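tokens incoming
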């Protein structure tokens, strides 16, 4: 994997960020998460009735001989598409291992409000760069994928029974889609309907999350940036519980956060999972078993800036949850300042 990254790191980043400026970029995964025995691309002829088809098979096999992945395409498939598909397959196996490609993965970016409100114009004008248009804004590949996926049908069922719960807890209403135009609206419990662009930032921020849960496609991986954005502290706590419920329904969830409240709520759910008085604690605080997080299934990483570099380190898991110094130190400093002012 690192050989591929070393050779094509610049091109990979250019496609990912829609920006030329990665000529001297170096990428590597350390330690390598996947030991690959061999990658094979073989041309074969398969008989189908009286006709035959020239095909190309790609297989990914672990060093121990275990078959990981295989796909067969027509030899007429665009070579560039073939290379990108193979690269993506190897990269996803490296990052996600055996969880790769069971269902779809979903990405909810921090910039989701603006993208949601403008998604129809962006998809029409080709913001991903696949349809060059004059004066069309360019988006990074993840943001472009979000816009494209958000434009899909919203006619499915709430596969995890979480959307209604979040709306009941936070919205006092629901986000609905026009079945003809796919325009989103907020429908209050009193029956009043308001277009999404006229609602509060809280609703527009959570609308993609709600519609993702209602979408007609299954997913088992979610990357959710800043789920606490534009939410009151009590709503942030509710979102932490929603994340826990997704995890307990089988979804691999990755979140980024700058909120000490959101993190502390996750820590409380982790701590309560093994609490000796768990049943009473759950009843007192109004929690259900699906709200709790098994610490064995949780990991946290802290990003710190040092010497013009960003360092990523695993946050230690204590009996009280994850200890994140970059948040805790600020809270301690703020509390000390407040106490000094009150003296």
């Amino acid at each position: 994997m690192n050989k591929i990254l070393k050779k094509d790191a610049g091109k990979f980043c250019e496609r990912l960020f829609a920006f030329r400026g990665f000529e001297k970029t170096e990428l590597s995964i350390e330690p390598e998460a996947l030991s690959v025995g061999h990658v094979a691309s073989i041309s074969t002829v398969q008989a189908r009735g009286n006709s035959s088809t020239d095909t190309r098979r790609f297989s990914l096999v672990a060093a121990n001989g275990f078959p990981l992945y295989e796909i067969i395409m027509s030899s007429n498939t665009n070579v560039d598409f073939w290379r990108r598909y193979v690269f993506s397959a190897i990269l996803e196996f490296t990052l996600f291992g055996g969880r790769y490609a069971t269902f779809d993965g979903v990405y909810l970016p921090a910039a989701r409000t603006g993208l949601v409100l403008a998604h129809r114009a962006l998809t029409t004008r080709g913001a991903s760069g696949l349809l060059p248009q004059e004066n069309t804004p360019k988006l990074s590949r993840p943001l472009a994928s979000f816009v494209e996926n958000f434009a899909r049908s919203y006619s499915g069922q709430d596969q995890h029974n979480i959307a209604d719960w979040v709306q009941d807890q936070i919205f006092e209403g629901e986000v609905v889609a026009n079945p003809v135009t796919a325009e989103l609206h907020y429908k209050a419990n009193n029956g009043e309907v308001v277009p999404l662009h006229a609602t509060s930032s809280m609703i527009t921020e959570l609308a993609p999350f709600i519609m993702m849960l209602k979408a007609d496609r299954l997913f088992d991986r979610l990357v959710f940036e800043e789920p606490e954005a534009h939410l009151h502290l009590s709503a942030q706590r509710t979102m932490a519980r929603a994340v826990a419920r997704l995890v307990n329904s089988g979804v691999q969830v990755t979140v980024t956060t700058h909120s000490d409240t959101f993190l502390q709520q996750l820590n409380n759910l982790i701590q309560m999972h093994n609490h000796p008085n768990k049943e009473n604690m759950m009843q007192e605080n109004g929690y259900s078993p699906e709200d709790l997080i098994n610490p064995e299934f949780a990991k946290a990483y802290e990003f710190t800036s040092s010497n013009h570099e960003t360092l990523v380190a695993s946050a230690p898991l204590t009996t009280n949850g994850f200890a994140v110094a970059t948040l805790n130190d600020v809270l301690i400093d703020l509390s000390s300042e407040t106490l000094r002012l009150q003296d």
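note: Residues 177 and 183 are 6 Å apart (CA to CA).
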